[in-house]
Amino acid sequence: YGRCRGSIARCVAQRPRAPVAWRLANYLVYIAGKGLSRKEMTDLLELRRKSVVPKKVQRIGVAHGARRGAAEARVLLVEYAEFQCGHCATVAPVLARVVERHKQKVALLFKPYPLRGGGPLLAALASLAAQRQGKFWKMHDLLFENPDRHDPKGIEALARQAGLDLQRFRRDLKDKKLAAAIDAIKIEGLRLGLKGTPTLFVNGKLYQMVKDQRHLDERVADELDLLATQKAAPPARQATRKRP
Q: What average pLDDT does this structure show over 163-168?
């Protein structure tokens, strides 16, 4: 991808100024240093390629969830996560740093995706109730930091800590529109084939690599390069019918 064909070495030789070529070369050195076999390295590179140029790009709605980052984003990250998911809590600050590093080009759309009722569902509803008061991301952080407080008493204490109007918060928690929003997100997740959390899409493309800082930063860089390549490519010539 990114105008690279054949081997990584060939791409570096033919396009020495292409960032994607050097990222792939450096990545190959990185995974080789992990002691992986040739097949394991090949499989990882294939996953990386599939993440950038998958067979299908999904259409994902933006009506539900909370957004941060660039208003006119070239890259939109969509995350489906549960507030009692430990891996989701680990990924949250990583994604925040990715967005911060690309303020003018990248945005994150977070969609609460409770896999169970009880605490996970209550936490998801609480995040959307906080959003109505402009405190989604504050509540988002508190919910991930306190997974053992996702009961009614604990959720209210977190709402107080987030600086929410508690009377309005209690009223919004009971609003059927919030429950309907969670239902819509769950239905969307089923359509997309979600198997767990966190699940991440990059411009509608399922992210399939490790969700750490290196891999996510490079995935965004690859996407930006691909967009630049597509923009620079000459437009396809349209066939014209000859008049009889």
A: 98
